[in-house]
Each structure stands twice: as C-alpha cells, then as structure tokens.
Amino acid sequence: MAITKPSASILRLLLTIKPNAKTTSVVSVDPATSITLRIHAPPRDGEANEEALGLRKSDAQIIRGGKGREKVVELSGAGHISVEEAVRRLEGLVEE
C-alpha cells in the first residue's frame, strides 16, 4: 500500500522520486503501489528529499530509502487525516 496509517497520529507514504525534473509535481497516485513525484532539485546532499517532503524535518521522517528513489516517509501529526482523505488530497495534486 502506498499510504498506510500505522498509528493514530502517523501517516506512512511510499514515494517514488524522479529528481532533476523541469518542475516539481505529483505525477501519479496509486494507493496499491506508490505515489510518484517529479522533483526539480538534483539528487545531491538531500536536496531532492527536502523538496519532495516540503515539510519541517520534525514533521516528516524518511524511514527507508534516504539515498534511493523509492522512499518510505512517515508524517507525524496526521491524526485528523484518514488514508482515504490523504489519497483524495494527493490525487487532487496530480498534474497531467
């Protein structure tokens, strides 16, 4: 699953990152596999990771894949968002 909720206040996302893109955008959201993002920043010194998350470091933690394109990220403070709501919000960001 691309989006899970392991506890009441944590949302876990499986992301596929494509760095060095012309612009930063959400490419696709497939709840069964992953969320694909194009990131403008290069994959250097964590720049693409920071741009992909777009959050304070205290709100997001890369659990797995810090140096790879496949990442598992946990977002804290997400108690008010269900998995279904997260999917809807991300799908609304997909650019054609």
Key phrases:
YggU-like_sf; Similar to UPF0235 protein acc. no. Q54UW1; DUF167; Conserved Hypothetical Protein Mth637, Chain: A; 2 helices; 6-stranded mixed beta sheet; alpha+beta; 36% strand; 96 residues; globular; 6 strands
Overall number of structural domains: 1
Please mark out the parts with pLDDT under 50 across 5 or more consecutive residues, or reply none.
none
What percent of the residues sit in helical stretches (DSSP H or I)? 10-25%
Oligomer: single chain
Distance between the termini: 23 Å
Strand content: 35-45%
- Which CATH class applies here? Alpha Beta
Going by helix content, strand content and strand pairing, the class is alpha+beta
Overall radius of gyration: 13 Å
